[in-house]
Amino acid sequence: MLRRCAPRNDELVKSYALARPQCFGYHRSMKSGPDIAMVAALVGDPARANMLTALMNGRALTASELAQEAGITPQTASSHLSKLEAGRLVEPEKQGRHRYYRLTDDDVAGVLEGLAGLAARTGHMRVRTGPKDPALRRARICYDHLAGDLGVQMLDSLRTRNLVKQKKQEIELTAEGERFLAKNLQISTDMLSHPRRPVCKACLDWSERRHHLAGTLGAAIMQRFAELKWAARDATPGSRVVNFTRTGEKQFAALFGGEKE
Questions:
Q1: CA distances from 94 to 18, 76, 97, 195 (A)
Q2: What letter does residue 241 receive in the DSSP assignment?
Q3: What is the pLDDT of residues 118-131, one digit of tens each?
Q4: How is residue 130 annotated by DSSP?
Q5: Are residues 135 and 202 in the same domain?
Q6: Which domain holds residue 47?
Q7: What are phi and psi of 146, to 5 degrees?
Q8: Are residues 77 and 136 in the same domain?
């Protein structure tokens, strides 16, 4: 009786890759429209989720740095990054001999922040980060804008004073808001135009579970804080914490109200 030879590993990988979409009647059950399952599969892998989260600080990182963040080998990281790049969740940028990766845009950051909020709300939490955890919740970078308690507080203040108008997730800068920005932060409306990005956008904050301000305005305000030396990103590799100086805290309170009780 002839025994069938076991397939080689590469044959197994190839056959699995071809068969996987057929599982559970994938093609028969697929509906027209955006493929949510494909994006969810890319984000859902723990290593890829760790790499995407590391890129939430807005900095571009190399494959080696992302491998360290994910706790995997550089070879495995390269494989994951190829999938994320093909799925248009990250984009590479070559500088000299190095190849850096960053999130494709703030839409990806918004989805990740929303998923983090959902995970926190449903009790799927990792081990707390320790002493820096309160600082992360107080003020952090979300791609390129301010998030956390202070980010939510800033949007609340802008909305209460009619500097912006918000209806659900849509936010509009008012004429009074334009004057406020020009006078207090030297931000003009010309600085806020972008072909693929709205001026104002609501981003669901994972720790506060309320909205903070994203869009070109959110990015411009955060950039202005840094230029005025009111705030700076924590220098610790991979950290998303934003540290305000004493002067920065006073100026922030003067513009957007004191800290919440």
A1: 32, 20, 7, 24
A2: B
A3: 887 888 876 554 44
A4: -
A5: yes
A6: 36-104
A7: -80, 130
A8: no
